[in-house]
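request received
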Amino acid sequence: MSVAVRLDNVHKSFGAVEVLRSVSFEVASGEVVAIIGRSGSGKSTALRCINRLEKIQSGTIEVCGRRVDDPRLDLRALRQDVGIVFQSYNLFPHLTIEQNITLAPRRVKRVHRAEARALALDKLKQVGLEEKIDAYPEQLSGGQQQRVAIARSLAMSPRVMLFDEVTSALDPHLTGEVLRVMESLAKGGMTMIVVTHEMGFARRAADRVVFMQMGKVWETGVAGILTDPETPELREFLANEL
Amino acid sequence: MAGLNLNYFIYLLQGAGWTVILSALAFVFGGAAGFLVMLARISRIAAVNRIAMFYVQVIQGIPLLIIIFIIYFGLGILGISMPPLVAAGLALTVYCSAFLGEIWRGSVDAVPRTQTEAAESLALTRWQTLRDVIIPQAAKIATPPTVGFLVQVLKSTSLVSVIGFIELTRAAQVINNTVFQPFTIFGVAGLLYFALCYPLSLWSRVLERRLNVGRR
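response:
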């Protein structure tokens, strides 16, 4: 299996605060990796460095053969390869669901209008929301909005998908519908890096788990480490999550 | 109302017409320039940003009357003379560009940063992000203060009467110089200004209400 994402010795600070201290991990193509850890452990920052929403101070990040830390990086090419879904959905409130999904394909890939609508329908079907194509984001529940955000990202046919605590703003019922969409994506072979507090999801869908603590990768392994952790820190974290 | 016969009234109305034309010019050209100022103010190039900020601060710190004098008399002495309408239009354009640029910059900043992140994460360029995602949302935020500023500009055009351009205020002065009925003449001029501004103020209030209760 080829490597889709590789972080090597990554350091990142916001001013004097060191958020990532020598973070290294790899994600193979088709693999689903869950990043877990307390708030402030650096897991979201690590994720945001992968599509360069944050710049790193040192180390290397490689995504689909591209060096993300290279200042001459073609940022737009990188972002066509890497989709991201955010905690707060971040749909465009002034656009319909169709327009939310088709904006980037039309502008970036020059997909024609009719084709774009078919694309939107197809992606909405994948997340089970094709009847909402002409609605506005505010008419949808949080879970539906988040599924649209996933469809919007999928419409660019990314090779890697990043999920940044995508269910943290949702109640348990809505969380379930979003997680089911993500699990079906995982089964479909999508390469996914998922920052999450949902241990159930990590256990069911993740091939591997990365546990971060104090800006470091503290423990990593197959999803089994969630039932049999090595470090006391992960044991304590898991005990508090339940 | 002996002083204000029909001819005088028509003369005042013509002056009011020029006030509207001047305001429109100021708004169209000042709006275009203000858009550029806004773009410069949100530029990620620090030097461009700083130059634009300096421009805004200088213009906002100078009375409009002085800007009018500099352009009409100052440039005149340098050999660049222009008709009063052009000088007045230019002065108001400069004045509007700074204020509108700043109003619009604030409106763009008021759109959550996460919208920019989402758009740029979808591989949109900075310009596409601005045009398709940020500006449509900023426009809603910007409309009430922009219309409010339009009211200010409309009233401020009275200042260009000092360079002899015959808009509403100057027309009133001219009539008053012959009939000397200041209370009546300037009272009517004031009412005409009010008649122009009041609908705009109402409109601004409607827009504000719609913005508060409507879609974010």
